Amino acid sequence: MGAILNGLALHGGVRPVGSTFLIFSDYMRPPIRLAALCRLPVIYAFSHDSIGLGEDGPTHQPIEQLAALRAIPDLVVLRPADATETVEAWRAAIGHQSGPVALVLTRQKVGVIDRTRYAPANGLRLGAYVLADAPAGKPALVLIGSGSEVELVLGAYERLSAAGIATRAVSMPSMELFARQPQAYRDAVIPPGVGARLAVEAASPQPWYRWVGDRGVVLAIERFGASAPYQRIYQELGLTVENVVLRAADPGPSARGSVRAAPSRAAPLLSPTSRTPKLPPHRPRRPRSPAAAAGPGARALRPRARRAPACSAASPAAR
Fold this sequence. Notes:
By secondary structure, the chain is α/β, with parallel strands linked by helices.
């Protein structure tokens, strides 16, 4: 499919769009990389973007795929948080003509963000934007999320703000677009003077360390998923509002606005011993004779005598 999309883009006259599960982007990596290398305006719509797809299990639950796509130069990855951001993501994808775009969409139900309370979704075009801010725009803590985990970020923002911790909630649907913005805008969204940052994403944490800095924390997944309803998987792996608050909130006086990283109290679905079957120790077998290998009652095989060739280079007939 990826090669066909590239051919359509090179032919011209159409805007090629292809769709499949995000986990299968691994199979398409060579044509995706080639599209980025050639700056072809191909659009990939990847669905089932995380452990949220549930009972299909770890074979179909992407973990490292987002990080792998974000590592491809000149490929723009868009992971919208809700329906309103998805509309803006399609708008941004169609308007992007200088390379391929990967739209990464969820499978599970995601609520629509109330834009009368939070910032409008057109901030997606900038890669990241402030959804909700601290009083006077001076946060002591910055929460960042993408896709379906923005819902967790907003839930934690409400609880921390109610506890008196000056918190900012940021939606970052595209690291690539955000990295292309002027430094002044990036500093306005993620203030360099605020080292207390927490990023949340149901995927590998690797791409987030650039944005949280040395003092920041990434709440992500560093193992394979499991087969279960997505609500339970999120809870077992610590991707909940409660765990975001636990990792961010200082149990001391909230006026200080400080944060700490707390270990997750969620128990994994699979214990380390059950994930890997225990194999018996390897015992090398003793070599057996051909007769013993053939079994009882079998005739022993005698080596066939080699016959001289009827015509050789040294014979008169050959000459």
